[in-house]
Design a protein that fits this description.
Blueprint (H helix, E strand, L loop, with lengths): L3 E5 L4 H17 L2 E5 L2 E2 L4 E2 L3 E2 L3 H24 L4 E4 L2 E2 L4 H12 L3 E6 L4 H7 L2 H8 L4 E5 L3
Helix pairs in contact: 3-5
């Protein structure tokens, strides 16, 4: 049923749970996985100055993202599955939109994303990437709770 499963990862415990579930599904379905970690430059853009000119900051963001991808890729390979990765950069959109566009561009059959379970003011301030992916994506979404 699912042949191409995209997994949004951010290095958190919750995204690790999402990856574990995606690995199980991919093994059962003989599916390929694509791991996506969005390098979010958006918080560093200002209306007056544009993008902050800081090559060191970009290098730090890319290295952190690559570390997240490498750790997740190793888990998928250890499970004996095919894996692709993507580190899209975000300059102007919500992270959820970038993930949904990656899923559409790759023709994913399913997107797996962890939910942090934020509520109240924390949810209002931080928003929910999982909720945004659910609204923006055109394919089924599997939400994996944080299980605190």
């Amino acid at each position: 049923m699912y042949k191409k499963i995209l997994v949004a990862i951010d290095g958190s415990h919750t995204s690790s749970l999402a990856l574990q579930e995606a690995i199980k599904l991919a093994q059962e379905q003989s599916a390929r996985l694509r791991l996506v970690h969005v390098i979010d430059k958006f918080p560093f853009i200002t209306a007056d100055a544009g993008m902050m000119d800081n090559a060191q900051l970009e290098e730090i963001l890319f290295k952190a993202g690559q570390d997240v991808i490498d750790e997740a890729r190793a888990k998928v390979i250890a499970a004996g599955l095919e894996v692709e990765t993507a580190l899209p950069e975000n300059l102007t959109q919500r992270i959820a939109t970038v993930i949904a566009e990656e899923a559409k561009g790759w023709s994913a059959d399913l997107v797996v994303v962890g939910t942090h379970g934020r509520r109240g003011i924390q949810h209002l301030v931080l928003g929910s990437v999982a909720e945004g992916v659910t609204r923006a994506a055109i394919m089924p979404i599997l939400l994996i709770p944080s299980r605190h």
